[in-house]
Amino acid sequence: MVIGCPGSGKSTFSRALHEATGLPIYHLDMMYWNEDRTTVEKSVFLERLQKAIEKDEWIIDGNYGSTIELRLRACDTVVFLDYPLQVCLDGIRRRKGKPRSDMPWTEKEGEEDLEFIEFIKNYNAESRPAVMQLLEKYKDKDIRIFSCRDEADEFLKKINR
């Protein structure tokens, strides 16, 4: 499973990991959101997620804190893109206006979701501690924590050999 602050590049990393390994890839945002920016019922989201984690092999990218432990129990490897705030904010800005295979819509240039930006700014103080606590609880898993894009790129290069 691939987790990290929004804008850290979870989907980009997951696509590269998929290319390197051939493992099927699932994006939580595609399971949760509709094209019109409404969300599916929680039961539908959980059913979609359950179907994915029941498979023998998978890459699932996304956070969705309420389901992290469910995925931790089912996975063998965790990649945590633990990047600085500015890297994540820059990542959000760079993806504006670009179609993405991990989202059912394209974010328009100039659109600013202030609540989302606040979530990102507060991620290290509010979400990260809970993630670290869960990673400690599941330390029997193969846990890879990358603090910069170069570390993640090096990991992918080793797989591609």
Structure description:
With 161 residues, the protein is mainly alpha-helical. It has one domain (2-159): 3-Layer(aba) Sandwich (Rossmann fold). The protein is 52% helix and 12% strand. It contains eight helices and five strands, in the order βαβααβαβαααβα. The strands form two sheets. It has a three-stranded parallel sheet, covered by helices on one side. α1 (10-21) packs parallel to α8. The two termini are 21 Å apart. 25% of the residues are buried. The mean pLDDT is 91.
CATH superfamily annotation: P-loop containing nucleotide triphosphate hydrolases
Q: Widest sheet: strand order? A: 1-4-5
Radius of gyration: 15 Å
Assign the structural class, choosing from mainly alpha, mainly beta, alpha/beta, alpha+beta, or little secondary structure: mainly alpha
Number of domains: 1
The arrangement of helices and strands along the chain is EHEHHEHEHHHEH
Please tell me what the overall shape is. globular
**Chain-averaged pLDDT:** 91
Helix proportion range: 40-55%
Total strands: the figure is: 5
| Beta strand % | 5-15%
Report the CATH architecture: 3-Layer(aba) Sandwich
| Secondary structure tally, helices | 8
Q: Which spans of ≥5 residues are poorly predicted at pLDDT below 50? A: none
